[in-house]
């Protein structure tokens, strides 16, 4: 039998229930130090005081320790939850990029068609080219391309330090295709917006956009 | 310098005075003796941890011992920043009390 077992039989070690309770209440980082302090003091008191007195000391000490232990346990859980690197959408960046390009196709057609329409005249674009000019397809496509690629590339890292409090860092994972799709979506949105302004919404009346 | 609370100051002084014996149990005894009231085992680790996070204390764990039921002791040591903080506190106390007539209320 190990020394712990012998000490337990002699009633010198912390009762298992109290030890278990304290290990649950103590934050993992403090568990060894705190349980060790309880054990050391309890054993010392068992030798110097009466057993009953030592047990009363243990119960009172445990009760008095509960609020700070609970506070530290809660904080350690919150820090663990908060201090994480969060990639919003864990998916293959190449797949997100290709899906983004596909989703941008209607916006690209409308944008190109619009430019040709303005530059060369109505005959420059065919009805077939602008079949994809449905506003839901165009705007929805841009939204899908932006969302999928932003969520794939953007990382949010939060960290808490005693001195500076919570810090949130937002960064891009640097996948060239995703960044290109995000840029293209932005450019197409700007182009369509500018086109709508310049053409005084003619495209809306003619092509239901 | 970061603001150091009174309990943190007492703990820093305890760690300084205890030297290589500065771990939870003797630190708590020292703090209780200084404050004149009971401080629970759980409560002593709150300011200790804060001081480590502030960089005023460093900590390391020793080998497990039988007297602690196979648990490790966590020893604390003053960092150079901690020593500077104590010097600044000592200087502040001296300046605060320098011109106060003694005994108090005699002037």
- Count the beta strands of chain B: 2
Widest sheet: strand ordering of chain A: 1-2-3
Uncertain spans of chain B, ≥5 residues at pLDDT below 50? none
* Biggest sheet overview of chain B: 2 strands, antiparallel
Structural class of chain B: mainly alpha
CATH topology-level name of chain B: Arc Repressor Mutant, subunit A
- Terminal Cα separation of chain A, in Å? 84 Å
CATH superfamily of chain B: Winged helix-like DNA-binding domain superfamily/Winged helix DNA-binding domain
> Taking all residues together, what is the mean pLDDT of chain B?
91
Q: Structural class of the secondary structure composition of chain A?
A: mainly alpha
* Low-confidence regions of chain A: none
Oligomer: heterodimer
Count of strand segments of chain A:
3
The rounded distance between the terminal residues' Cα atoms of chain B is: 33 Å
Number of helical segments of chain B? 4
> What is the succession of H and E elements of chain B?
HHHEEH
Describe this structure in words.
The complex is a heterodimer of chains A (209) and B (107). Chain A is mainly alpha-helical and 209 residues long. Chain A folds into 2 domains: 3-80, no CATH class; 85-207, no CATH class. Chain A is built from 8 helices and 3 strands; from the N terminus they run ααααβααββαα. Chain A has helices at residues 3-9, 16-25, 31-48, 51-82, 93-120, 135-153, 176-198, 202-207, and strands at 85-87, 154-161, 165-172. A 3-stranded antiparallel beta sheet of chain A has the order 1-2-3. In chain A, helix 3 (31-48) runs antiparallel to helix 4, helix 5 (93-120) runs parallel beside helix 7 (176-198) and helix 6 (135-153) runs antiparallel to helix 7. The mean pLDDT of chain A is 75. Chain B is mainly alpha-helical. Chain B has one domain: Arc Repressor Mutant, subunit A (Orthogonal Bundle). Chain B has 4 helices and 2 strands. Chain B has helices at residues 6-18, 24-35, 41-54, 80-98, and strands at residues 57-61, 74-78. Chain B has a two-stranded antiparallel sheet. In chain B, helix 1 packs across helix 4 (80-98). The longest helix of chain B is centred in the C-terminal third of the chain and has 19 residues, at 80-98. Chain B is elongated. In chain B, 31% of the residues are buried. At the A-B interface, helix 1, helix 3 and helix 4 of A face helix 2 and helix 3 of B.
């Amino acid at each position: 039998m190990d020394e712990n077992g012998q000490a337990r039989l002699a009633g010198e070690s912390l009762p298992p229930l109290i030890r278990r309770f304290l290990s649950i209440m103590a934050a993992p980082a403090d568990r060894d130090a705190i349980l060790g302090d309880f054990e050391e003091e309890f054993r010392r008191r068992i030798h110097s005081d009466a057993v009953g007195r030592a047990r009363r000391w243990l119960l009172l000490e445990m009760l008095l320790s509960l609020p700070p232990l609970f506070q530290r346990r809660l904080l350690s859980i919150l820090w663990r939850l908060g201090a994480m690197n969060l990639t919003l959408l864990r998916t293959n960046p190449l797949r997100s990029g290709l899906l983004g390009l596909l989703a941008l196709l209607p916006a690209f057609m409308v944008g190109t068609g619009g430019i040709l329409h303005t530059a060369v005249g109505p005959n420059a674009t065919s009805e077939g080219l602008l079949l994809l000019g449905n506003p839901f397809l165009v705007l929805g496509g841009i939204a899908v391309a932006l969302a999928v690629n932003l969520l794939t590339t953007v990382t949010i890292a939060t960290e808490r330090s005693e001195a500076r409090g919570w810090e949130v860092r937002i960064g891009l994972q640097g996948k060239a295709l995703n960044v290109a799709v995000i840029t293209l979506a932005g450019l197409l949105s700007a182009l369509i917006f500018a086109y709508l302004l310049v053409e005084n919404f003619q495209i809306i009346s003619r092509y239901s956009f | 310098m970061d603001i150091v609370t009174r309990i943190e100051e007492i703990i820093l002084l305890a760690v300084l005075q205890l030297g290589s014996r500065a771990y939870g149990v003797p630190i708590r005894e020292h703090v209780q003796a200084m404050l004149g009231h009971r401080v629970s085992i759980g409560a002593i680790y709150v300011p200790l941890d804060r001081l480590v996070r502030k960089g005023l204390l460093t900590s390391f764990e020793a080998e497990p011992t039988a007297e602690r039921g196979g648990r490790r002791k966590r020893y604390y040591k003053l960092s150079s920043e901690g020593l500077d903080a104590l010097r600044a506190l000592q200087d502040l106390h001296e300046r605060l009390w320098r011109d106060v007539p003694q005994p108090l209320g005699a002037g």
